[in-house]
Amino acid sequence: xxxSLDMIKNNPEVFAALVAALGIAGGVLGNWISAKVQVAxxxxxxxxxxxxxxxxxxxxxxxxxREDRKIQIAAFVRSAREVLKHxxxxxxxxxxxxxxxxxWEELMQLEGQLELVAPDAVLDQVRRVVEAVDKSLELAIxxxxxxxxxxxxxxxxxxxxxxxxxxxxxxxxxxxxxxCAAGDGNAGEQDAFHSAAASALADIPTLTDAERQTLLFDAxxxxxxxxxxxxxVLRNTAVRNLVAYARTxxxxxxx
Length: 255
Fold this sequence. Notes:
mainly alpha
């Protein structure tokens, strides 16, 4: 090793060539290192750009999902309230069964759409609303015609020419309801009130045959007031809870 160094030192041409070679090698090495740094920097920039694009895409997706949820939930609540509006009117007016059923079908479609986009907490409340609306519609279909007929009978009680028969019919129907509530042990009393009510109703020309039969059928059922009050509390609570859960999910209450 020492001899090689001495030979290089004593030979200026060899020494000069070696110095030149080292200079070239150093330049190549420097370029190679610089290239590696640039490549690494380019990769880091590319990775950062990909991450930024991914984050932006995810933010856009979440914003779109939130907007979709808001639209779907609002449509569902509106549809539920439409059904409930028609079920309420079924106790005082005719002609609301068909729009109520049509709106109910729309409500079922909206529930299916929410199952694709809404979180589980909201879906639980959606199903409670559907259950409450279903019970409201069922009660309106069963008892709405009787309520409408009773309203018409009540009007006949204050109308000239029909008030006597209407009062007899009303009294007999109330007696029939009480006898039916007492059970089958009062079968004879039930028959007597039924006959008296049917006879009195036949003397009221403002009633149709269907309304007379509906009044007799309805008299065999419990009073409607308690059932209506229970349904109103159930459905109002269900809709209110759905709106509250939806507001939380959508961040509407965030300051």
